[in-house]
């Protein structure tokens, strides 16, 4: 995959939120109310800010300096340490890309459907949550093949079909996450006759903007349009993996089953973080927060990331660099 040199620009898009911001919390609580809380879909881990974005940008500057622009999608917020005068940085408010009926939105699944509407976003782009990091030198060719189509990284899921049907038979519900992935797979199967059982690797992924637009505005316009008023996560959401399945189905993507040596998810409630790095030496790492993590886990993660990426990036304000 690396025997050519990419001749096109590549951007990266992050979602970011500071769930401790009093103004943001007041807005969220006023709109959703306490009854909207569900542990698996609306937990603290989905909104907590533990400076992961700062360290992700440090990893980007170190290992992927070829990125053209960095777009940070937020709900009228800016990290206090971020130097927004840096020419590579562009803040994008939800109101710039989301339909009116989707606002306000506390559902990253819905926000992700409209990334292609970001002004000036390049045709080829990467997408990352703020808890995803580069852990080794990478090039555009690690994400896009010579034909310009993305490399689709999926995690093999042995006997996935049997597991789904077994749970259905015994009446056990899939998790919200797995249910939304199944919906995406079902839609692609119905439309193109192709079924993909591979799971998202939950890490930095590559996309083409035109394919993204086709999925949202044409191919699955009705299905996605029916979900955009899901202001928080729903079991009927359509997971972002639909863009990857679509790319494979129409020949606009190259499947790469991955293992932990390429892409590793470290759940932060598991304390021995260094074990994963020493054992697998992954190129891409996600330090995943969830409903299972505590504030102590988050503080420990921050210290670990500080040690992993100690050098401040050019994206940080000088005043905050001295404090990092």
Q: Could you explain the architecture of this structure?
A:
The chain is of the alpha/beta class. The chain has one domain: Spore Coat Polysaccharide Biosynthesis Protein SpsA, Chain A (Alpha-Beta Complex). It contains twelve helices and eleven strands. It has helices at residues 22-32, 52-63, 94-97, 108-112, 160-170, 176-192, 209-219, 221-225, 241-249, 273-280, 295-308, 318-321, and strands at residues 10-15, 70-74, 89-93, 124-129, 132-134, 151-155, 199-200, 205-208, 254-257, 263-267, 284-288. A five-stranded mixed sheet has the order 3-2-1-4-8. It has a three-stranded mixed sheet with strand order 5-11-10. Strand 10, helix 10 (273-280) and strand 11 form a beta-alpha-beta unit. Helix 6 runs parallel beside helix 9. The protein is globular, with a radius of gyration of 19 Å. The model has no long low-confidence stretch (mean pLDDT 89).
Which terms would index this structure?
324 residues, alpha/beta, Spore Coat Polysaccharide Biosynthesis Protein SpsA, Chain A, five-stranded mixed sheet, three-stranded mixed sheet, 12 helices, 11 strands
CATH architecture: Alpha-Beta Complex
Task: Please indicate the percent range of residues in DSSP E strands (runs of 2 or more).
Answer: 15-25%
Number of helices: 12
Measure the end-to-end span.
Answer: 37 Å
Query: What's the CATH topology name?
Result: Spore Coat Polysaccharide Biosynthesis Protein SpsA, Chain A
Largest sheet: 5 strands, mixed
Order of helices and strands: EHHEEHHEEEHHEEHHHEEHEHH
Q: Which class of secondary structure composition applies to the elements?
A: alpha/beta
Q: Shape from CA axes?
A: globular
Strands, count: 11
- Lateral strand order in the biggest sheet: 3-2-1-4-8
Radius of gyration: 19 Å
Number of domains: 1
CATH class: Alpha Beta
Give the proportion of residues in helices.
Answer: 25-40%
Are there runs of 5+ residues with pLDDT below 50, and where? Answer: none
Per CATH, the superfamily is: Spore Coat Polysaccharide Biosynthesis Protein SpsA, Chain A
pLDDT averaged over residues: 89
């Amino acid at each position: 995959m690396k025997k050519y040199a990419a001749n096109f620009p590549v951007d990266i898009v992050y979602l970011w939120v500071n769930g401790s911001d009093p103004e943001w919390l007041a807005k969220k609580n006023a709109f959703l109310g306490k009854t909207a809380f569900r542990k698996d879909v609306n937990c603290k881990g989905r909104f907590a800010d533990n400076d992961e974005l700062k360290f992700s940008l440090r990893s980007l500057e170190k290992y992927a300096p070829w990125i053209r622009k960095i777009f940070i999608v937020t709900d009228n917020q800016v990290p206090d340490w971020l130097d927004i005068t840096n020419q590579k940085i562009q803040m994008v408010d939800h109101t710039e890309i989301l339909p009116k009926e989707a606002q306000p939105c506390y559902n990253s699944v819905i926000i992700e459907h409209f990334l292609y509407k970001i002004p000036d976003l390049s045709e080829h782009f990467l997408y990352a949550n703020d808890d995803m990091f580069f852990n080794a030198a990478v090039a555009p060719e690690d994400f896009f093949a010579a034909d310009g189509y993305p490399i689709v990284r999926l995690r093999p899921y042995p006997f996935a079909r049997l597991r789904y049907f077994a749970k259905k038979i015994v009446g056990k519900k899939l998790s919200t996450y797995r249910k939304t992935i199944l919906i995406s797979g079902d839609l692609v199967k119905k439309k193109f006759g192709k079924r993909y059982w591979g799971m998202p690797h939950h890490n930095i992924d590559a996309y083409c903007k035109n394919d993204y637009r086709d999925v949202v505005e044409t191919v699955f316009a009705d299905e996605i349009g029916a979900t955009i008023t899901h202001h928080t996560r729903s079991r009927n959401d359509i997971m972002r993996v639909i863009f990857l399945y679509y790319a494979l189905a129409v020949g606009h993507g190259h499947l790469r089953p991955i293992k932990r040596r390429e892409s590793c998810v470290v759940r932060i409630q598991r304390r021995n973080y260094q074990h994963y790095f020493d054992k697998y030496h992954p190129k891409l790492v996600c330090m995943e927060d969830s409903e299972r993590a505590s504030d102590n886990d988050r503080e420990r993660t921050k210290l670990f990331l500080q040690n992993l990426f100690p050098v401040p990036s050019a994206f940080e304000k000088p005043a905050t660099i001295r404090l990092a």
